[in-house]
Amino acid sequence: MILESVLHWVAGGLFTAAAVFALIRIVRGPSILDRMIASDVLLTTLILVVGAEMVVNGHTRTVPLMLVLAGVAIFATVAVARYVSKQDRSSTPTDQSRTGEGS
Prior knowledge:
Blueprint: H1 2-28, H2 32-57, H3 63-91, H4 96-99
Helix pairs in contact: 1-2, 2-3
């Protein structure tokens, strides 16, 4: 019983540390990709917390919540990746003389 309690506290501390570090990276940045990776880490940590709570309490009622969180993480990552790739294409100057398309 004491070992189980210690493991719960250690796991809670590690989950908290991961969440705090991810929040720090979200706030500090410096780029949108850093913030996106940090938000993925934060959502993954939240999914792990929900999964650990299911194991400790012996139920599966929160599996739909885990699936929704995973879906949000995937769609947000894809949306930001598409946004950044469109930004990169529009900010890169095209040099027509180098590609041979000019004239």
